[in-house]
Amino acid sequence: MRFVILSENRKNGICSNEDGLSIYFDIDGNKFLFDSGSSDLFIRNAKLLNINLDDIDTIVLSHGHWDHGNGLKYLNGKKIILHPDVFVDRYSVSRNMQFAGINQKLEEMLERFEVIQTKSPYMFFKDVYYLGQIPRTIDFEGNGNISTVLDSKTEAKDYTLDDSGVVIKTKSGIVVVSGCAHSGICNTIENPKKVAKEDTIIAVIGGFHLRKIDDVLMKTIGYFEENNVQNIFMGHCSTDEVIKEFEKTNIKVQKLYSGAEFEIDNIPAKE
Ligand SMILES: [Fe+2]
Ligand SMILES: [Fe+2]
Is the per-residue pLDDT at 77 higher than 90? Predict the structure, then answer.
């Protein structure tokens, strides 16, 4: 199983970066795309990496924020799985109430894609599931990470209930793929354990939405240790200081960047 980061906030090598996330993955020759970043950068980087996006079978959109979904404008003819709320209007508090939703409406997408809208877990390939709406059960994560509002005037909170992910069940355990983890990264792991009926977590890959060293971070690290998470591939909305805290644990940590490639079968744990 191979993961390639097509667009990311960080760069290290030939590929450019942007505010956004797009992850390509290949399971036994079957190709998938998780998010599309905020522009056509994922397509340009794929070309540099000799990845043919025509081969993609299914796209999963993690949630309806611009930095994960605006690149979809440059694709068509695929099956796409998403939560119905990805289309809501939403605005960014930290960016002067700029529009923060995706730049396409359902009607436009229906013209170009086979759209599967669901709030429930959905198996789109053998042992590979879209997680649907993630229940928020971990007490210290509360209602999750709120970074947008639903109305720029009333500032009605946007709990980003559409925030989801993917779980891949393998013989040795599960691999969890997260977009921004607005549901909370622990909830984003807790739910796939139930969906895939498997407790061993080989790897978690994606954005963790952890930005500072605080009580929630320490409890999150405690949760990862209790659950024996073996490998994490973290980036996007995770800061360097948070990544350093994870590096102090027994968990093997790798940072995401545009162009990074990871093989996740039989990956060794930290020595
Ligand atoms: Fe994001
Ligand atoms: Fe987001």
Answer: yes
